[in-house]
C-alpha cells in the first residue's frame, strides 16, 4: 500500500512537472507574442507620426498655393485693366492720327508747306512707334 501510494504520488508529481513545463512554454510563447505586438505598436506609432508630419506639410503647401493663386489672380486683374487702358489710349491715338491725316492729306496733294509735311511725318512716326509698342504688349 505504501508502494502504491508512492507510485501514485510520483505519477502525480510527474504530471505536475509536465503541466508546469507546458505552462512555462505557453508563457514563453505569449511573452514573445507580446514583445512582437509591442514592436508592431511602436512601428505603427512611428508611422503615424511621420504621416501626421506629412499631412501638416501638405496642408501648409496647400495654403501657400492658395495664397499664391489669389496673388496671381490679383496681378492678372491688374494687368487686364492696364491692358484695357493701354488699348483705349492706342485707340485714341489712332483717332487723333486720322484727324491729323485727314486735315493734312489734302495739303500734301497741293503745294503744302514744309512745316505741314514735317508735322505729318512726325505724327505718322509717333503713331507707328505707338502701334509697335502696343503690339509688343
TrEMBL record:
Pfam annotation, one family: Tropomyosin
Membrane spanning stretches: none
Keywords, alphabetical: Coiled coil
Biased composition (Basic and acidic residues): 9-20
Region annotation (Disordered) ranges: 1-20
Domain of life: Eukaryota
InterPro entries, A to Z: Tropomyosin (IPR000533)
Protein name: Tropomyosin
Provenance organism: Bondarzewia mesenterica
Amino acid at each position: 500500500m505504501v508502494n502504491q501510494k508512492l507510485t501514485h504520488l510520483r505519477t502525480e508529481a510527474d504530471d505536475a512537472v509536465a503541466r508546469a513545463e507546458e505552462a512555462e512554454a505557453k508563457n514563453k510563447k505569449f511573452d514573445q507574442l507580446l514583445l512582437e505586438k509591442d514592436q508592431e505598436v511602436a512601428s505603427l506609432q512611428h508611422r503615424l507620426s511621420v504621416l501626421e508630419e506629412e499631412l501638416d506639410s501638405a496642408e501648409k503647401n496647400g495654403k501657400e498655393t492658395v495664397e499664391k493663386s489669389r496673388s496671381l489672380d490679383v496681378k492678372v486683374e491688374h494687368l487686364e485693366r492696364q491692358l484695357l487702358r493701354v488699348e483705349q489710349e492706342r485707340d485714341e491715338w489712332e483717332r487723333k492720327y486720322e484727324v491729323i491725316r485727314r486735315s493734312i492729306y489734302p495739303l500734301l496733294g497741293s503745294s503744302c508747306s514744309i512745316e505741314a509735311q514735317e508735322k505729318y511725318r512726325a505724327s505718322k512716326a509717333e503713331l507707328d512707334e505707338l502701334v509697335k509698342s502696343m503690339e509688343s504688349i
